[in-house]
Request: fold
Amino acid sequence: MVHTIIDDLGALLLFTMILIVAAGQIYRAIYAVAAQSLLIAIAGGVLARATGNVDLWVIAGVTLVVKATLLPWVLHWVVKRMNVRREVEPVIPVAATLALAVVIVVVSFQLSASLGPVRQAITGNALPVGITLTLTGVLVMATRKTALTQMVGLFASENGIFFTAMAVTRGMPLIIEIGVILDVILAALVMTIMVLRVRSTVDADIADLDRLKG
Amino acid sequence: MIGERPLGLVLLEMILLVLLGPLVTGIIQKIKARLQCRQGAGVVQPYRDLTKLLRKGTVQADTASAFFRFIPVLVLAATVAAGALVPVIRAGPPAVPLGDALLLLGLLALARFLTAIGALDAGGAFGGMGASREMTIAPLVEPVLMMVVFSTAIAAGTTELGALAAHHGTSSIVAWRAADFLGLAAMLLLLPAETGRIPVDNPDTHLELTMLHEGMLLEHSGPGLGCMVLASHMRQIVTLGLVAALFFPAGPADAAGAADLLLGAGVFAAKILVLATYLALVESSYAKLRLFRVPQYLGVGFVCALTALALRIL
Reply:
């Protein structure tokens, strides 16, 4: 039963990831990543119920509050505050990114299928889905020009790692999870401040910072 | 284990689809009108349009060849034949082997091809443009539809739609596997493209330069146009029926009594109604995509379908 639910959630996670890759507007990418975090929180709740691990309940709750609510809200606020162009500016066409995403999906499934006995011990499709989310998040980071969409990619990537860790270990020690969450919050804050400062001083974005000095 | 559908029932279902096709269009138009705070025409308006068209005379372009006259009939025949392959009232394979989902998609593709040929044959600028656009979009839509069919067919071990629907059984969404979610997502993305609606096509206008399907109908008139319009109603309900057969539990599989058949028909009507409402909502809440953005939109569907397939196989 848990296997099926985690599998289904994995499919929905993949769907949100496809939406993030295909999003033409920043707001849509933000909503998609919020939905993804919500699904991660639900997966945490399901696993917590199945294993009776209290830590997982805490983690699911923290994920719900921080990653599904707080961080998307911060991103939303920054987009509003900065008055940036609402369109996502990709380095390579979105269709090409989608094609690369397909390659990533197939490769992750193929790789984890070759793991054989290891995969048997892991809940459902969690491992390939987690790897896919992580790599696709990196892909989004690499193929977007503006810092905000790169942040969305980072969060998606982080979601992937989180999902894998949760499903593989059936609940990591609470202290590690809390540490990871704090890292994400910190990263989001630092990047937000960076983006705002860079923008207010030189009116440039990440794509313009391509020359080394000195 | 599964009761077969006798040939009589299959034919009855096909006729039912032909009769109900315009009604679905009427319902979608009504919902759209209501969403725009208009009263809107009645749900039987498409029937009135059809009877009006059938009474009118035919005018044909001088440049059109003799083949042009047969196009509407052939298109309608191909689409209606596709209707025979969709299980409506109850699941289960037909007693006489008729064909599977691939044949259904093939017949729809044939109808599309004939429509485009007709539009080119008449020699009008609009028709040619509509045909070229339609043929640009079609190769993006059809493979994805096939992949969605395959992703479901792999689980059931057959591409016969009745048997597929029976494999799903009467159980509810609880029985869905992971791949079904992605398959349905791909299908919902493709539905507007296959039924010629916003955000891919605009069914309401004959003037806009962005239109696909309507542009190809411009040269037809009278009963011929009636056939073409009926065929597009039919294509719509057949596509909706395909989605219903692939993803939603069908009516009772081993039903024999009249009560069970009525129940099956009611369930089918409910499923079609839900999907029609979905189409109306999408059409009311989105703008038409620029033609060059359409491949990207369909690409999302492609990726979803491929991922569904990957989830099934790997």
Observations:
- Chain B has a mean pLDDT of 87.
- Chain B has one domain: 7-313.
